[in-house]
């Protein structure tokens, strides 16, 4: 391997499915199908590299603003995808967790999420966090409310709350993101895991997600390896330089 630092947690903002299809004179739905297929490949590649946590932004709360036809298509695709994942994640020992508000999702989707998360909850080493109907600001508000109830019920002492302990109130208690990848040339965070991204390295790829493959992931990891992460501190002992 030509890089030594393997991030512990990677986040990917999946983007460009629609443009991928439009460039080929296809319907946007064809792009979503191609993107969904590529997700399987990316999940395998990421875990094969020894990365322990992968968070995927597959559907934002704001995505519900899209046309009814597209939203319906995506919901059907998500359901089919989860049905396949139910078998695959158990075989590959991938722990799946889901972040986001579950309420507007169909009962069928919520049931299958329940089943997969229950069946895979004891696996360790590979955790896949699916951000579905997710928004980062909403997550922080929901976490603050949970914390408030713990405080007023004397389950936690307000003085003990700090940046680290706050993680336990987020949808999933995951470690911070080390590397964020967004495909399709857009350079925005778009409300993705705002709390967990505080010190992440950001990597923007021009490639549309359905075409984002092994080479592209390896390039992102190479770039990550060249970055110097200082977490606001100062690296190096040459204190007088
Ligand atoms: C990402 O692709 C997939 C979802 C948000 C569901 P887009 O659908 O955002 O594709 P573009 O950005 O329109 O090309
Ligand atoms: Mg987009």
List keywords for this structure.
14% strand, alpha/beta, binds 3-methylbut-3-enyl trihydrogen diphosphate, binds magnesium ion, globular, Undecaprenyl pyrophosphate synthetase
What is the compact description of this entry?
With 241 residues, the protein is an alpha/beta fold.
List the helices and strands and how they pair.
Layout: E1 9-13, H1 17-23, H2 28-48, E2 53-60, H3 68-91, E3 95-99, H4 107-120, E4 127-134, H5 136-152, H6 163-166, E5 179-182, E6 201-204, H7 214-226
Parallel strand pairs: 1-2, 1-5, 2-4, 3-4, 5-6
Helix pairs in contact: 1-2, 2-3, 3-4
The protein binds 3-methylbut-3-enyl trihydrogen diphosphate and magnesium ion (MG).
3-methylbut-3-enyl trihydrogen diphosphate binds at residues 14-19, 35, 59, 63, 74, 184.
Tally of helical runs: 7
Order the strands across the largest sheet as they lie in space.
3-4-2-1-5-6
Low-confidence stretches: 237-241
Category from helices, strands and their pairing: alpha/beta
Radius of gyration: 19 Å
Briefly note the CATH topology name.
Undecaprenyl pyrophosphate synthetase
Overall pLDDT confidence = 95
Number of domains: 1
Bound molecules: 3-methylbut-3-enyl trihydrogen diphosphate, magnesium ion
Order of helices and strands: EHHEHEHEHHEEH
**Strand content bin:** 5-15%
What's the number of extended β-strand segments? 6
CATH superfamily: Decaprenyl diphosphate synthase-like
Architecture (CATH level 2) name: 3-Layer(aba) Sandwich
Gross morphology: globular
Our measurement of the CA-to-CA distance between the termini, rounded to an integer number of angstroms, reads: 33 Å
Q: Mind telling me the CATH class?
A: Alpha Beta
Largest sheet: 6 strands, parallel
């Amino acid at each position: 391997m030509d890089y030594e630092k393997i991030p512990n947690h990677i986040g990917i903002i999946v983007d460009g499915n629609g443009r991928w299809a439009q460039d080929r004179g296809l319907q946007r739905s064809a792009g979503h199908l191609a993107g969904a297929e590529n997700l399987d490949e990316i999940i395998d590649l990421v875990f094969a590299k020894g990365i322990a946590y992968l968070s995927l932004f597959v559907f934002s709360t704001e995505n519900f603003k899209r046309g009814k036809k597209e939203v319906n298509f995506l919901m059907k695709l998500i359901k089919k995808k989860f049905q396949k994942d139910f078998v695959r994640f158990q075989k590959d020992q991938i722990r799946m967790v889901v972040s986001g508000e579950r309420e507007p999702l169909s009962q069928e989707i919520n049931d299958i999420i329940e089943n997969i998360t229950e069946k895979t909850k004891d696996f360790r080493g590979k955790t896949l966090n699916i951000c579905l109907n997710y928004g980062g600001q909403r997550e922080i508000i929901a976490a603050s409310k949970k914390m408030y109830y713990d405080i007023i019920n004397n389950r936690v002492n307000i003085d003990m709350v700090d940046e680290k302990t706050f993680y336990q109130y987020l949808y999933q208690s995951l470690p911070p993101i080390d590397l964020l990848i967004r495909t399709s040339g857009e350079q925005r965070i778009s409300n993705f895991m705002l709390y967990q991204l505080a010190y992440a390295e950001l990597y923007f790829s021009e490639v549309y997600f359905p075409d984002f493959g092994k080479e592209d992931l390896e390039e992102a990891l190479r770039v990550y390896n060249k970055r110097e992460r200082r977490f606001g501190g100062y690296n190096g002992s040459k204190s007088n330089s």
